Amino acid sequence: MVGKPVVSVIIPAYNSARWLPETLHSVVAQTWGDLEIVVVDDGSSDDTLSRAATIEDRRIKLVQQTHSGAAAARNRGLRETTGELIQFLDADDLLSPGKITAQVNALRTAPPGSVASCAWCHFAEVPGDMQKESEPVWSEPDPFTWLVRSYTGEGMMQPGGWLVPRTITDLAGAWDETLSLHDDADYFLRVLINSARNVFVKGPTVHYRSSAESLSRIRGRSAAESSLQVCRSRQRILQAVSNDEAVRVALATRYAQFAYEFGTSAPDLAESALIAIAELNAEPANTVGGPVFRRFVPLLGFARAVRLRSLGTRRRSQWNSWK
Fold this sequence. Notes:
The chain is an alpha/beta fold.
């Protein structure tokens, strides 16, 4: 990488008037000045667009579209930008001031085809009330190993933590607009599988706002179908590279997490996940569920433990409805 590359910051926004100005302030305050900032208003019914317009900076471009979902908004942002490096950022999250500069500088000396990452922490309302805990997978340099370790329970990366060369986003392809949950996991799976190296940069931080409105908290039928589809995508992509035991354990662990989360609300899909685990011929890592549940897994096996848990939850729900 030579010269001063332009970094494209893509912000999908839907009814984000409450948070978007603070997010934009964190972007325009970046010490890296060569930015193009595209806010894609995804058919908001509030004053998201007018609130964004209050931030006066020539680098900001506002785009409107009919409500099509966050993935579609991010794809629109990719089409509207030309920068050599891509920063995705949700409309309620924040970047520390030197985040982009540190990652651009790290990529200058990294092998071609590298992506950069950094620490992330979450907060509820006040950015100062941040909870920051390092996760083992963050500093893993090999992208394929990073995925395997992450899927086995060693941590994850919030989407805003990555800085990705456009050459890699071109290889990864578009965000899958059919997904409603874990579309970021699906997208960055494809980013990493097309990357040569993960360069973890110590110091900068992405501040992830954990709010009640977050899509990741939604657990309806469409969310379950989306999540299972991502599990299957992981399996297809990873096993095309390797089918060793570590990969099969990682995939089994992700299916196990799905079965644990959706065993009550979508028991038929949870059973499909348990069948997939059996076909992988691998035992999930014992990192799924709470401490009590994990104590029962070695005694019962994961499939029996999750079925008993789901049955008990459904019966309690029925009993409460009869009261």
